[in-house]
Design a protein that fits this description.
The chain contains three helices and six strands; from the N terminus they run αβββαβαββ. It has about 180 residues and is of the alpha+beta class. The protein folds into two domains: about 1-45; about 50-175, 2-Layer Sandwich (60s Ribosomal Protein L30, Chain: A). The chain starts with a helix and ends with a strand.
């Protein structure tokens, strides 16, 4: 029995030393990978081009980042307003939201087919509002293209009490 215990503890010690050596190699590889990533990310950062479109004093309607021939477009939340007028009807606001999105996407050289992600916020959400949102969305997104990844949230209010919906988007295009 003593022999088995001694042999087991020697075996355990060899395994422990082997694991330490393996971890040492792993740490060295990890550090090399980190250095490589840091070097390449600083090169990528130098290549990034940012552009802000349709800006006001407080925010931009569109922000873009370009690198390596790819442009990522971030659309600020679009609301149902035109020429300072906010319609009372939810359906009219939804139509204006998507029309405003079309305008902002075009300013960045994109269209609805380029949208990868949509996030919608509906005040006092219910089945009727979701159905109206879905109908309007279907008019702007071509059924021949896969739909964008989407999130739709029910919320209690937006920045102005008259707003009933806001939708933001992310699109990607080749330059």
């Amino acid at each position: 029995m003593t022999y088995f215990f001694e042999r087991s503890s020697q075996h355990a010690e060899q395994e422990r030393l082997g694991a330490i050596q393996f971890m040492g190699r792993g740490i060295r590889l990890f550090i090399a990978l980190l250095c490589s990533c840091a070097a390449s990310s600083s090169l990528l950062a130098a290549e990034l081009e940012k552009e802000y479109l349709n800006s006001s004093a407080t925010y931009s309607q569109v922000a873009t980042v370009s690198s390596g021939g790819i442009r990522t477009i971030y659309l600020s939340g679009q609301v149902g307003i035109r020429d300072g007028v906010i319609p009372d009807s939810f359906a009219e606001q939804v139509d204006l939201v998507f029309a405003n999105m079309a305008t902002q996407l075009a300013a960045a050289g994109a269209g609805f087919a380029d949208v990868l992600k949509l996030t919608g916020f509906i005040v006092d959400i219910d089945a009727d509002r979701v159905a109206e949102y879905s109908r309007a969305r279907a008019r702007y997104f071509d059924s021949n293209n896969p739909p964008p990844a989407s999130t739709l949230l029910g919320i209690s209010a937006l920045v102005r009490p008259a707003f009933q919906i806001e939708v933001e988007a992310v699109a990607v295009i080749e330059e």
